[in-house]
Amino acid sequence: MSEFKNVTIVKQANVYFDGKVNSRTILFADGGKKTLGFMQPGEYTFNTADPELMEILAGELEVQLPGCAWQTVKGGESFNVPGNSAFTMKVKVASDYCCSFIK
Description:
The chain has strands at 7-9, 14-16, 21-28, 33-39, 42-47, 52-64, 71-74, 77-81, 86-101. By secondary structure, it is mostly beta strands. It has one domain: Jelly Rolls, CATH 2.60.120. Strands 1, 2, 3, 4, 5, 6, 7, 8 and 9 form a 9-stranded antiparallel sheet that branches. Strand 2 (14-16) and strand 3 (21-28) form a beta hairpin. It starts with 6 loop residues before the first strand and ends with a strand.
């Protein structure tokens, strides 16, 4: 899906790691929630409450999911993050992403 229709966008940005990771929250009529964001090169650890689907739209990074080895993820690829966990990303080149929160 290259675009979202009939959504609400929260105007205030989500800013992490001194501005190196930014996103905007998108709310859907059915209660679904996603964020669209951009990450500059660096290493970042995120904590989750709900399970997430991370789609890397452009760029390249390595991700270490709980209990797993590092894996490379490039634009057009995705990975699932378990709820109530933490994961680390080493962003190699500026990367565009979409995070879907799974309820």
